[in-house]
Amino acid sequence: MLEGIDPIILIIIITNVLFSIKGFDDYVFLDKYKFQVGRVLGNEKLRMLTSGFLHVDWMHLGFNMYALYMFGGFVSTILGPISFLIIYFGSLLAGSFYTLHYHKNEPYYSAVGASGAVSGIVYSSILLYPGMELFLFFIPIPIPGYIFGVGYLLYSIYGMKKQLGNIGHAAHLGGAIGGFVLTLILNPILFTTNTIFVIMLAVPIILLLLFGDKLKSL
C-alpha cells in the first residue's frame, strides 16, 4: 500500500503513529501535549502544534492517515514537497487557531488529531483538481470534488453548531480554510484556470468568517 509514497508524507504518518501510540497508553503524555483552550491561552502555545500528532484511538488515527495518504501525494506532486509542508502545517495551525477562537470561552475544551492538517490537504487537492471523483462508502456513485468540498464545509458548520459527535468540527473548518488560502497563495494561477470553482469553494468560507460567531446564538 505504501509503495511509491512520498518520503515526507511517510515521515509524517510514522510520526503521527508513534506519538499517538504513546498517547494511547500514557494519559500524562496525552494531557501534556493535547489542545486545551485554557492552557493554550496561558503560556502553552506549543499545544496548538503538538495536538496535531495525537489521536484518541486507532480508528481516529487510521482515518486521518488514510486520507493523508490518499490526497497528500497529489498535492506534493503538483506543488512540490515544500509547498506541501507549508499547506500541511499551515492548515494544522489554522485549525487550532479557529478552534481557539470559536471555543475561547470554554477553558476546558480539548481536542487532538491531525484533522485540521488533513482537511487542508484534502481541500487543497480539490482546489487543484475540482473535477476529481470521490467515492464515499455510503454513496454508490462518484461525487465531483468541488461538490464534496462545499458539502464538507456545510456539514462541518452544522456539526460545529450542533456539537455532533466527539469530532473537532472547528478544526476541520479552520484547516480547510487554511488549505484553501495557502493553495491559492502558492499557486495563484488557479484564480484564472479554476475561477468558477474557486468562487464556489470560497462562498461558504466567506460566509463562515462573516457570520461564524453567530452560530452559537442561533
Automatic annotation (TrEMBL):
Residues 44-186 form the Peptidase S54 rhomboid domain. Its main location: membrane. It is an enzyme of class 3 (hydrolase). GO terms for biological process: proteolysis. It is a multi-pass membrane protein. Pfam families: Rhomboid (PF01694). The keyword Cell cycle does not apply. Gene3D superfamilies: Rhomboid-like. Its EC number is 3.4.21.105. The keyword Hydrolase applies. The chain crosses the membrane at residues 7-24, 66-95, 107-129, 135-158, 170-190, 196-212. It is found in: Membrane. InterPro entries: Peptidase_S54_rhomboid_dom, Rhomboid-like_sf, Rhomboid_protease_S54. Keywords: Hydrolase, Membrane, Protease, Transmembrane, Transmembrane helix. GO terms for molecular function: peptidase activity. It comes from the Bacteria. Belongs to the peptidase S54 family. This is Rhomboid family intramembrane serine protease. It comes from Polaribacter ponticola.
